[in-house]
Design a protein that fits this description.
This protein is an all-alpha fold. 47% of the residues lie in helices and 0% in strands.
């Protein structure tokens, strides 16, 4: 009886961890929005000419 319980617990635990690894692989990686030096690549969403004065 204990052997069956142990095997089921081990199976359940391995399924949980494998699902977590698969889920972590689906998460997109971090994308840098600012290079720390200038505003290269940024878009003026306000479209006002004096936005960044």
């Amino acid at each position: 009886m204990t052997s069956i319980r142990t095997k089921l617990l081990l199976l359940y635990t391995s399924l949980i961890f494998s699902a977590a690894v698969i889920r972590a692989a689906d998460i997109p990686h971090w994308v840098d929005l600012f290079n720390g030096k200038d505003l290269t690549g940024w878009v003026d969403v306000n479209t006002s000419p004096d936005t960044w004065q």
